[in-house]
Design brief:
Elements: E1 2-6, H1 7-17, E2 32-38, E3 41-47, E4 51-58, E5 60-63, E6 65-70, H2 71-80, E7 85-90, E8 95-100, E9 103-108, E10 125-130, H3 131-139, E11 156-162, E12 165-171, E13 175-182, E14 189-194, H4 195-205, E15 218-223, E16 227-232, E17 235-240, H5 249-252, E18 259-264, H6 265-275, E19 287-292, E20 295-302, E21 305-312, E22 314-317, E23 320-324, H7 326-336, E24 340-345, E25 352-355, E26 362-366
Antiparallel strand pairs: 1-5, 1-7, 2-3, 2-6, 3-4, 4-17, 7-8, 8-9, 10-15, 11-12, 11-14, 12-13, 13-26, 15-16, 16-17, 18-22, 18-24, 19-20, 19-23, 20-21, 24-25, 25-26
Helix pairs in contact: 1-2, 6-7
Length: about 375
């Protein structure tokens, strides 16, 4: 195998797939990156049996072939090379020469036959959506994914297609995040994507660029029986899906409310942040809020002290006194991305429902904390 490639392009290709490489494994090949050259295209591959990332880049190829080599070593070599072109050559004994400027490394590679095969997906469902929209939907639901591995299905986000609308739902037992957008799905579907996969997609998709005049950037999504595939701009990411049944989230969302509140998102976040100053890991008292007479009174008292604050709000319905976790509420308010939000409240033991002023593109629930009378 012999090829020549610009250092910057090669560095991006290698660094892009590195998150899917195992840091330490009993199978040495999983700590490596697969380099494969065919017809002037270099494919770099990282795979850890759960997540696989591939990046293709055009190169000047003199000889096709493939080899695997340690990811950490390859990254360090490329990063230390001078700018400009880098030349790769691999002989029959898998001896690799990497040359850039006046520097030349000679290292030993491994046979590509030792590399595990990335799953090939025969999609049962496939659709496209804008990268910006998908990133928005993931970022606004990722925060509510459960970290409790005792319930594996909740450590991911539910992707549900219904009547041409994609729903993303995350639940951790104390909060719920629902985001939906019309994407023209032709068929209904339901599957769970691991939270780790979505976190890596967010990092990877930030690299996507487009040459289209209108700036549009569609991501292709294909789903098989056990895996999902994201593809865009020469990148592909394949991940296993989570097994198990997701909860019936629709039952958890209140249909009616006794109190409706319109409030400045920023003002509410700032008030809660002030109150949370006297909350710590050792002192975990709830934030208390009273919704009545055109304002929200936010207060808290702990062994460190107490705070009493008040912000204006448009309130209709019954007065409500309720407690909640400061971080959970701030996460939901930030995820809304809105200048103002609508809060719907029932009793002091009912979930706090957060929605946009118009439409229903997102719904966040924050479970209340019981207050001592």
């Amino acid at each position: 195998m012999r090829f020549t490639c610009d250092k910057a392009a090669l560095s991006e290709a290698v660094s892009s797939v590195t998150p899917a490489v195992s840091a330490k494994s009993t199978l040495v090949a999983l700590e490596c990156i697969l380099l494969s050259v065919s017809g002037g295209t270099l494919s770099t591959v990282g795979y850890n049996t759960e997540l696989g990332i591939t990046k293709t880049v055009e190169v000047e190829a003199a000889e096709d072939g493939e080899v695997i080599l340690n990811a950490r070593l390859l990254n360090e070599i490329i990063n230390k090379m001078p700018s400009g072109e880098i030349r790769f050559s691999v002989d029959d004994k898998l001896l690799i020469q990497i040359t850039g400027g006046s520097a030349q490394f000679t290292i030993v590679g491994m046979s590509a036959e030792e590399y595990p095969e990335i799953p090939q997906i025969d999609p049962e469902h496939s659709f496209e959506m804008e990268n910006s929209v998908l990133r928005s939907m993931i970022s606004e639901t990722l925060f509510a994914i459960s970290q409790d591995t005792a319930f594996p299905a909740l450590t991911g986000t539910l992707f549900e297609g219904k009547n041409g609308v994609l729903h993303l739902v995350s639940v951790d037992g104390k909060r719920l995040a629902l985001r939906k957008e019309p994407v023209g799905c032709k068929e209904d579907f339901r599957f769970i994507v691991p939270g780790k996969t979505l976190s890596e997609f967010m990092k990877l998709s930030a690299r996507f660029t487009t040459d289209r005049e209108d700036g549009s950037l569609p991501v292709s999504i294909g789903v098989g029986t056990r895996h999902i595939l994201f593809s865009c701009c020469g990148f592909t990411m394949v991940s296993r899906l989570l097994d198990g049944d997701f909860i019936d989230y629709a039952v958890a969302i209140p249909k009616e409310s006794a109190t409706r509140v319109i409030v400045s998102t920023r003002a509410f976040i700032e008030s809660i942040s002030r109150a949370s100053i006297i909350i710590s890991e050792k002192v975990k008292n709830p934030i208390k809020a009273v919704f009545e007479e055109g304002s929200i009174r936010v207060f808290c008292e702990t062994s460190l002290g107490k705070i009493d604050d008040r912000i204006p709000a448009d309130i209709t319905g019954n007065p409500v006194r309720i407690g909640f976790n400061d971080r959970y509420m701030i996460d939901a308010l930030k995820a809304s991305g809105e200048d103002q939000v609508l809060l719907e409240l029932g009793s002091n033991l009912s979930p706090i429902k957060i929605m946009p002023l118009e439409g229903d593109s997102f719904t966040f629930l924050v479970m209340p904390m019981r207050l001592k009378e």
